[in-house]
């Protein structure tokens, strides 16, 4: 398991691994928003947490198809499926590696970008915490979607169509936590609910992902 | 070591082979032959457990089987040593030093796999079999894009290392490996048009 | 004889032919009676005037939009557990019908919403949930269409339906949570059953019965078509090998 994690991380940071692309995408989306909605600082401050959450979600989506597609094409997925590693563990580890290479950097960078959007000072801590709790769920749900579409030639667009509706609860609780944190109406409830979703995803979705991987490898 | 009884397997929901039966003892290998499309890959994938058989049984000791497909499963961004180390660790082993010499990879250890030629990549893919320590191998066209020297080299490893140490192997190939082992022509096992068990059977 | 015998494709074709005809007839009768009764022979409601009459399309279609997904979930489970092909094909057949019901519910809701709330669309929890349900239907249908091998497609869409159902329920409650945070109390949401008096209630029940029968008839029709397609493919595949 550790070997697989290290391999995936090494592949992500080496040439052609695409590490940093998600971050760059995140940056560009956030830079584009003021051009779209106008430079009014109060408007930007109002929508900053939501924009950052949606942009982080889209940036995470961007690299999902790499989770399994590359291994499927070069044959390593079939070899992994016949290896002593359980496929459920493979799905879990790969989702975790995806989080380390996309979700974690996005979480750390988001406050800096909040600064550009004139986000209220009170929101920074809530944004950081909500992204830290929520992005692992995005990676795990995404790896289920990636496993579902791994056998398809052009699965990228379909992957987005399948995964985005599944992201709705996480997005709602994540953005709501920041909003309530700023209002002072109590961010604990949405944060705990989002944490429950994340834990539930990590507990159950590896089994679903492994099941669809086996079907796709048949 | 490997017992196959009355195996029937399907490709794309249609039965392609039926009644496949053979035994392999430790130290024995079997070459599969037959024209393209007869079901060699399907049979090997079924033996390796990647797809369920329609009928019949495949028996070999738990956790001894390994599969090698047309694709090598090589990561081009990793070096030769890193590729082999990864697979060794997945199987809970370390890379034996002899494996580099056996597959003629000694001078390539720290080269990125992406810079290797097709034949060199294939040798790396086969070297994986030398580091995972599995006894029952299912090999699908292992010699594609290998030159005559490398084919002899691979056959030598198969005979003097793998089979000599009590392993066994089922190999689908079109060329003569120079191994003194029996062959099995799959043509007589091609499923009859009325063979049962395909996924579309209920609709006929 | 076990009940599962009826799931054999050939037997299914036999017994569904008359059932489908009856279902179509019942649907036509119920919808004709219910809609004419509802549109022309019920009094106008004091507060809403004649706009209330769209309830006869809106409520049954919304009901069927959810029940269609539920039926797909059950059919998917049956396929995963018992591997009856007809079950997977019925789930596939129900999806576009459910999608159409969702669209009808959304459109009639918008038409109704315009005079009542002064807007065609509001991010009310109930409306938003239906929009999300619409997206789930789209994804499910797209996945079916994208995969060539029929059994693989059945397996993958079944797992998607299972996982999707869990997330659809999560979304339903998350959306409630989200909107209450914005507007205190769901001021736009109507609790329909309580508003409806008896004069409206009975024609509404007739219309719901009509929609159920229509759904059943359409799903049977589409399932029968899917079975014929699979049979054609199976025969062709056999013919090519012989």
Automatic annotation (TrEMBL), chain A:
Pfam families, per the entry: CcmB
Keyword match Transmembrane: yes
InterPro entries for the chain: Cyt_c_biogenesis_CcmB, Cyt_c_CcmB_bac
Transmembrane segments: 12-37, 43-64, 96-117, 123-150, 157-175, 187-213
GO annotation (BP), single: cytochrome complex assembly
Membrane topology: Multi-pass membrane protein
A GO-annotated cellular component: plasma membrane
The keyword Acyltransferase belongs to this UniProt entry's keyword annotation: no
GO molecular function: heme transmembrane transporter activity
Keyword line: Cell inner membrane, Cell membrane, Cytochrome c-type biogenesis, Membrane, Transmembrane, Transmembrane helix, Transport
Chief place where the protein resides: membrane
Compartments where found: Cell inner membrane
Primary role: Required for the export of heme to the periplasm for the biogenesis of c-type cytochromes.
Protein family: Belongs to the CcmB/CycW/HelB family.
Name of the protein in question: Heme exporter protein B
Organism of this sequence: Loktanella atrilutea
Upper classification of the organism: Bacteria, Pseudomonadati, Pseudomonadota, Alphaproteobacteria, Rhodobacterales
TrEMBL record, chain B:
InterPro entries the UniProt entry points to: AAA+_ATPase, ABC_transporter-like_ATP-bd, ABC_transptr_haem_export_CcmA, P-loop_NTPase
Protein name as catalogued: Heme exporter protein A
Pfam families: ABC_tran
Ranges where the ABC transporter domain occurs: 2-202
Lineage: Bacteria, Pseudomonadati, Pseudomonadota, Alphaproteobacteria, Rhodobacterales
GO molecular function: ATP binding; ATP hydrolysis activity; transmembrane transporter activity
PROSITE patterns named in the record: ABC_TRANSPORTER_2 (PS50893)
Keywords: ATP-binding, Cytochrome c-type biogenesis, Membrane, Nucleotide-binding, Translocase, Transport
GO BP annotations, alphabetical order: cytochrome complex assembly
Organism expressing this protein natively: Loktanella atrilutea
From TrEMBL, chain C:
Chief location: membrane
Signal sequence coordinates: none
Location within or outside the cell: Cell inner membrane; Membrane
Biological process, per Gene Ontology: cytochrome complex assembly
Protein's membrane topology: Multi-pass membrane protein
GO cellular component: plasma membrane
Molecular-function GO terms, alphabetical: heme binding; heme transmembrane transporter activity
Transmembrane parts of this sequence: 21-42, 54-81, 93-115, 127-147, 159-179, 199-221
InterPro entries assigned to the protein according to its UniProt record, in alphabetical order: Cyt_c_assembly, Cyt_c_biogenesis_CcmC, Cyt_c_biogenesis_CcsA/CcmC
Swiss-Prot/TrEMBL keywords: Cell inner membrane, Cell membrane, Cytochrome c-type biogenesis, Membrane, Transmembrane, Transmembrane helix, Transport
Record bears the keyword Transmembrane helix: yes
Keyword Nucleotidyltransferase: no
Coiled coil: none
Occurrences of domain Cytochrome c assembly protein (ranges): 14-183
Recorded family membership: Belongs to the CcmC/CycZ/HelC family.
Protein task: Required for the export of heme to the periplasm for the biogenesis of c-type cytochromes.
Record protein name field: Heme exporter protein C
Gene that this polypeptide is encoded by: ccmC
């Amino acid at each position: 398991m550790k070997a697989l994690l290290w391999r995936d991380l090494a592949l992500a940071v080496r040439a052609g691994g695409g590490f940093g692309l998600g971050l760059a995408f995140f940056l560009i989306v956030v830079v584009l928003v003021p051009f779209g909605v106008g430079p009014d600082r109060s408007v930007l401050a109002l929508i900053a947490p939501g924009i950052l959450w949606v942009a982080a979600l889209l940036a995470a989506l961007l690299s999902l198809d790499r989770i399994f597609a590359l291994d499927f094409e070069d044959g390593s997925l079939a070899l992994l499926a016949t290896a002593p590693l359980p496929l459920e563990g493979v799905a879990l580890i790969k989702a975790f590696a995806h989080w380390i290479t996309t979700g974690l950097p996005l979480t750390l960078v988001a406050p800096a970008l909040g600064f550009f959007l004139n986000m209220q000072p009170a929101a920074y801590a809530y944004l950081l915490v909500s992204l830290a709790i929520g992005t692992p769920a995005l990676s795990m749900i995404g790896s289920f979607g990636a496993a579902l579409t791994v056998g398809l030639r052009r699965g990228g667009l379909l992957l987005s169509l399948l995964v985005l509706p599944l992201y709705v609860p996480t997005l709602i609780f994540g953005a709501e936590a920041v909003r309530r944190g700023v209002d002072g109406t109590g961010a604990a409830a949405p944060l705990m609910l989002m944490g429950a979703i994340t834990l539930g995803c990590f507990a159950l979705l590896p089994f679903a992902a492994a099941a669809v991987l086996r079907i796709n490898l048949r | 070591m490997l017992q196959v009884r009355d195996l029937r397997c399907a490709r794309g929901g249609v039965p392609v082979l039926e009644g496949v039966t053979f035994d392999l003892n430790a130290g024995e290998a079997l070459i599969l032959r037959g024209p393209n499309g007869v079901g060699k890959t399907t049979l090997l994938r079924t033996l390796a457990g990647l797809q369920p058989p329609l009928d019949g049984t495949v028996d070999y000791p738990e956790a001894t089987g390994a599969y090698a497909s047309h694709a090598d499963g090589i990561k081009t961004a990793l070096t030769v040593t890193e590729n082999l180390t990864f697979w060794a660790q997945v199987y809970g082993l370390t890379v034996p030093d002899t494996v580099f010499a056996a597959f003629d990879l000694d001078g390539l250890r720290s080269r990125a796999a992406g810079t290797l030629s097709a034949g060199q990549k294939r040798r790396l893919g086969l070297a994986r079999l030398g580091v995972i320590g599995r006894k029952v191998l299912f090999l699908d066209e292992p010699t594609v894009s290998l030159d005559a020297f490398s084919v002899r080299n691979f056959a030598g490893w198969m005979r003097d290392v793998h089979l000599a140490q009590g392993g066994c192997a089922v190999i689908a190939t079109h060329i003569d490996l120079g191994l003194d082992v029996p062959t099995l022509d799959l043509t007589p096992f091609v499923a009859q048009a009325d063979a049962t068990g395909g996924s579309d059977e209920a609709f006929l | 004889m076990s009940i599962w015998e009826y799931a054999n494709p050939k037997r299914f074709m036999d017994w569904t032919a008359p059932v489908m005809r009856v279902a179509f007839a019942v649907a036509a009768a119920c919808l004709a009676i219910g809609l004419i009764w509802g549109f022309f022979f019920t009094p106008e409601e004091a507060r809403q005037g004649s706009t209330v009459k769209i309830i006869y399309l809106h409520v049954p279609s919304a009901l069927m939009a959810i029940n269609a997904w539920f039926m797909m979930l059950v059919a998917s489970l049956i396929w995963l557990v018992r591997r009856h092909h007809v079950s997977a094909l019925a789930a596939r057949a129900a999806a576009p019908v459910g999608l159409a019901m969702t669209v009808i519910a959304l459109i009639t809701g918008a038409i109704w919403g315009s005079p009542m709330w002064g807007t065609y669309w509001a991010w009310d929890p109930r409306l938003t949930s239906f929009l999300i349900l619409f997206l789930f239907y789209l994804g499910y249908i797209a996945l079916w269409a994208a995969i060539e091998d029929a059994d693989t497609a059945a397996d993958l869409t079944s797992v998607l339906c299972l996982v999707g159902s869990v997330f659809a329920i999560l979304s339903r409650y998350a959306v409630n949570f989200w909107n209450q945070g914005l507007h205190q109390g769901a001021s736009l949401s109507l609790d329909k059953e309580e508003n409806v008096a008896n004069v409206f209630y009975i024609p509404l029940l007739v219309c719901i019965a009509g929609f159920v029968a229509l759904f059943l008839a359409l799903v049977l029709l589409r399932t029968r078509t899917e079975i014929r397609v699979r049979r054609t493919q199976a025969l062709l595949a056999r013919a090519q090998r012989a």
